[in-house]
Design goal:
mainly alpha; Rossmann fold
Length: 281
C-alpha cells in the first residue's frame, strides 16, 4: 500500500483485514521506522530470555501475535538490509526463529505492507532487496494524495464534521462557502490527516452552527485567496465537473460524493452546461 503520509494507508489495511476471512483474528501493527535494526528484529520475531542485555524474559514477536490474522508492516521501506533477509525468509516459508533461540516456529499470517517511498527506486539504489520487493509486490494499492482528489474534500469534511460533533458534543451543521473554498484551494501537504485536524480545530472554535473562515487554523487563514464575483459559482461548476469525471459520469455516485440529491445534480448539470467531455479545470 503506497502513498504519501496522511493518505490513509493504515485505514486501507484495516479495511482489507475487516473484509477478509481473517477478520476474527488479530490485526497487529509494526511501525518499521520506530525501532533500530536490532530492536525491530526483536519486535518482529520475538526473543528468548537472555538473548541480549535487558532480555529478562521470553517475548513473543508481532509475527507470532498475528497468527490467524494480519500483520501490517508500516513504513517497510525503512527496514535495514539485514532484517530484510529475515523477513524474506519468513514470507517464503512462513517460518521464523526468535532472537537468541533455535526452535523454528510456523506462523499462518497475512502480511500487508505500507510505504511512503518508491520501493522500486529504493531497490535500484540498493537500499531495498529486489527479491523482497518482488515477494511483497503481489497486489499494489496506490493511494492518491488529497491535492489530486480535491473533489473528495466536501465528503471528507462532512464525515469529520459528524465525527467531531459527537466528540465535542456540538451541533455544527455546515461549513460556510468562503471557508469551504479556502479548504478546496489549499494543497494539503499533510493530506487527509491534516484536513481532519483542521476540521477538529474548527469544530472546537466554532460556537454557532456554521464553521466560518475565522474558525479555520492559522495556516489556512494565511492562504491568499482571491474571491472574484463569480468565484463561488465557478468553484461549484469545477467541483461538480470533477465529481462527474471521477465517477465516470455515474450520476448516482457523483451525487453521493457531492452530498446532494440526484435531482439537484441534474439541475446543476443543466445550469452549467456540463457534458461528458467537460474538463474539471
Amino acid at each position: 500500500i503506497a502513498g504519501e503520509n496522511g493518505t490513509g494507508k493504515e485505514l486501507v489495511a484495516r479495511a482489507i483485514h475487516q473484509q477478509s476471512h481473517r477478520r476474527e483474528g488479530p490485526f497487529i501493527i509494526a511501525n518499521c521506522s520506530a525501532y533500530s535494526p536490532t530492536l525491530l528484529e526483536s519486535e518482529l520475531f520475538g526473543h528468548e530470555k537472555g538473548a541480549f542485555t535487558g532480555a529478562i524474559k521470553t517475548k513473543k514477536g508481532r509475527i507470532e501475535r498475528a497468527i490467524g490474522g494480519t500483520l501490517f508492516l508500516d513504513e517497510i521501506g525503512n527496514i535495514a538490509l539485514a532484517t530484510q533477509i529475515l523477513l524474506l525468509r519468513f514470507l517464503q516459508d512462513h517460518c521464523f526463529e526468535r532472537v537468541g533461540g533455535e526452535e523454528t516456529f510456523e506462523a499462518d499470517v497475512r502480511v500487508l505492507a505500507a510505504t511512503n517511498r518508491d520501493l522500486y527506486l529504493e531497490m535500484e539504489a540498493g537500499r531495498f532487496r529486489d527479491d523482497l520487493y518482488y515477494r511483497l509486490n503481489v497486489i499494489s494499492i496506490v493511494l492518491p494524495c488529497l491535492r489530486e482528489r480535491k473533489v473528495d474534500i466536501p465528503l471528507l469534511c462532512k464525515h469529520f464534521l459528524k465525527k467531531y460533533n459527537l466528540k465535542e458534543r456540538k451541533k455544527i451543521q455546515s461549513i460556510s462557502p468562503e471557508a469551504m473554498q479556502i479548504l478546496m484551494d489549499y494543497e494539503w501537504p499533510g493530506n487527509i490527516r491534516q484536513l481532519e485536524n483542521s476540521i477538529s480545530h474548527s469544530v472546537i472554535l466554532a460556537q454557532d452552527q456554521i464553521i466560518e473562515k475565522n474558525h479555520l487554523p492559522y495556516f489556512l487563514k494565511q492562504t491568499k485567496v482571491d474571491f472574484p464575483a463569480t468565484s463561488l459559482a465557478e468553484n461549484e461548476r469545477r467541483l461538480i465537473a470533477g465529481a462527474l469525471k471521477t465517477s465516470n459520469w455515474n450520476k448516482h455516485e457523483a451525487a453521493r460524493r457531492l452530498d446532494i440529491s440526484r435531482s439537484t445534480l441534474y439541475s446543476k448539470i443543466r445550469r452549467y452546461g456540463l457534458r461528458k467531455e467537460t474538463s474539471c479545470v
